[in-house]
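Sanity check. The docking grid for DQA depends on where the pocket ends up, so I'm generating a full predicted complex first rather than guessing from homology. Inputs follow.
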Amino acid sequence: MNKKKILVINGPNLNLLGLREPSIYGRKTYTELEDYVNQCAHALGLDAVLFQSNHEGVIVDRIQAALGEVDGIVINPAAYTHTSIAILDALKAVGLPAVEVHLSDPEQREPFRRVSYTALACERRFVGCGFEGYRLALEYLNERLSGRKA
Ligand code: DQA
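Predicted complex below; grid placement will be based on this.
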């Protein structure tokens, strides 16, 4: 059987993990996040395709290109969570099962982080669990795609 493919998108400034605000995001780097996601996907028998961009339109293009290529999307849209109707619309347009992840819990931070446009196109949200949120998102999609979750 072909492995299910999951596109894992990370938005702006997540490439600077380890360096950026370590008191909020921790000291582990983006490369370590990539390794972690690949390991979790492997353990679940999934194929993870990792993508990071600091540019809204590039993320929209990547979501569009995912149609027919992958089975689901895990997305940490970073700051675009709180601003991007374009990314919300792209997720809605392709209609792939999507899960939103945040390393921190945006609800516990500044008021402007309490709004998530992108969550409106996502089936689930995992926040405040650090790297583990990506594992929880992959587990959710794995069950969802194998029909164990409606
Ligand atoms: C973030 C939370 C966002 O509010 C912030 O803009 C980020 C990272 C997180 O993973 O906790 O860049 O998405």
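Relevant for the grid: The domain at 4-145 is CATH 3.40.50.9100 (Rossmann fold).
Also worth noting: The chain has one domain: 4-145.
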